[in-house]
């Protein structure tokens, strides 16, 4: 069974959030009431961003888990955004090194 591309994009957004939070969404592993969580997600509930996460990255994964599948970005845009985030972080790191020296 192949998932629709926009479902895969949603899952990618969830994975990005999990990477920044170091936990699973809505604590699925520790709850017995997964059906109510699923209903909340279908009604638009999403996890809150982790405060220390890069704002651009937060916006990216929030776009990925948009409720309307057609509002989610395609993979090419995601890759481009990730490249831009990496480039920005690398540039920022170089500036910090210059300040220290």
TrEMBL record:
It comes from Funneliformis geosporum. This is 3442_t:CDS:1. Signal peptide: none annotated. InterPro entries: Kinase-like_dom_sf, Ser-Thr/Tyr_kinase_cat_dom. GO terms for molecular function: protein kinase activity. Coiled coil: none annotated. Residues 5-82 form the Serine-threonine/tyrosine-protein kinase catalytic domain.
């Amino acid at each position: 069974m192949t998932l629709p591309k926009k479902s895969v994009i949603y899952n990618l957004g969830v994975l990005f959030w999990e990477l920044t939070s170091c936990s699973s969404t809505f604590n699925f592993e520790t709850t017995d009431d997964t059906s109510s969580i699923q209903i909340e997600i279908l009604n638009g509930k999403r996890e809150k961003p982790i405060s220390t996460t890069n704002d651009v990255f937060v916006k990216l994964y929030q776009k990925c888990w948009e409720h309307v599948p057609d509002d989610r970005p395609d993979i090419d845009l995601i890759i481009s955004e990730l490249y831009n985030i990496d480039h920005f972080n690398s540039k920022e790191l170089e500036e910090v090194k210059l300040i220290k020296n």
